[in-house]
Amino acid sequence: MTPIDWLIVFVVNGAVIAYGIYLARGTETSSEWFLGGRALPWWAVGLSMFATNVDNADIVGVTGSTFKEGIHIVSVYAIGSVAGAILAAFFVVPKMYRAGFFTNAEYLEARFGPSTRVLSALIQLQYRSSMLGLILWSAHLLLTELVGMSTVQAWSLIVVLVIFAGFYTAFGGLRSVVWTDAAQGIVMMIAALIIFGTIWQAAGGWSGLTAELDRTGRTDMAHIGRYWGDDNATPPWMVVVAWTIIGSGYWTVNHTQTMRLMGARSLWDMKMAALFGVALSLPIMLVSASLGILARALPDFQFIPDAEADTVYPLLANAFLGPGLKGIVVAGVVAAIVSTFDSMGSALSAIFTRDIYARFLVRDRDDHHYVLVGRVATIGVLALGFLYLPFIAKQQNMIKAFTTLISVFATPLLITYLAGVLTPAHRRSGLIGLVVGASYGVIALVDRQFFENEWLPSWFTTRWTSFGWSVLFTSLAIAVTTLRLGRQSQDQLAETKDTGWLLRSREQLPPIREHPFSDRVPTWLNPVPWAVVCVAGSAYVVFVAFW
User: Fold this and answer.
1) Which pLDDT band holds residue 307 (cuts at 50, 70, 90)?
2) What CATH number was assigned to the domain covering residues 3-391+523-545?
């Protein structure tokens, strides 16, 4: 890194952080802090969702994954993300939005009872803080391998970035997060295109890559339909299903995304924001995924051990980017780090403050008190990510660590949300389904981590098949309970025990708007046709272009 590179990094990200601090001024009420006053336009929300979706762990981990296993991970950013975005913005979140809820866990209490709300809150805290651990680890890899920092220097800078992101998030809430994420998203896109163009040229383009893959016998890496799992026995369609479940869960369960949708100024903005976010994410993640297999066409990278696959991205950037370009790419990486820190800080602090602290611990204080708690909790939840570092460091790569953890609790929670919104599931079935699904997830995790799939049949507990089994066990538990106790309309929401501030804060929200137009939504801006376009495009990428 030359002085000009460092100047670019500090000027670009310093300006964005300063902007976040500027926006934080005047944020006082809970509706402003938690939901941005429900005044956020679709394009800003969409850019923010993109910046949160494509974090530095994705950039590093996806490159490492495709270098080791091939292009199959594209499925999660195509079919998985589109399915999740449509489920969230068209079906799940509108229910919460109309009811005046601030978090998705609040909806679960109205639909399935307080125990389900608590479990949802705890699952999300575990799920997203584990992802935060992956982001911290990838930041360490980037700073040590790409920038050349020592371990102490890298961790010191990471802590500083956490503090800065936590500072403007704690004071500005969702409004600061969304607008800074929008700026960071643009920086990330520029950085991704620069490194892709450089590596593409160095590898000789697609023809150079395919020729080298043919020569080395790795042709299957460029095809999703030729990846048969870690054990070479998992059908490709099952891998795609698993990635679809992961993507759907991310956009539906993950409050870092649903919180942004709840802050949209109208239901139309909500739908367009989700579609815009996934439409931006797919090409950028195609770029990152391609870097891994493009590296296979470069002589100095062909013999990197699979165990070191997560170092491929920083090594590529370090080897092929000159002064100035390296600074832009590092600025994009730092932007990705900060955008995800602030997103997780705001979302997880909202969950802790509303679904645990205000609901069960301290029920009736003034608005200022709970905003202060949310601000303090922002720093606390960011610190949780450091607890996962020992586990992540032991995994073969970051993507494997992610897929190992996600099926345990997040998948049962996804099915519970969908059952609540789309089916006449009985009120008691939500908790039962969550417990049954999570119990299977824990058993499968123990078998994978401590018995290496030898305690139970491998087809029952591997990281790919576990998603299907998790869906099946959770769904069966909900269905059996409903058949036994009776159906309940999905529109029948019980009155929650929200009193005092929780109730008053919901009454502060502005009236619901269907769309921001004076008359009606123009035909060409109808979200439904655009959703169809997204589905068709993602299906083409997975089942035609890369199958």
Assistant:
1) low
2) 1.20.1730.10
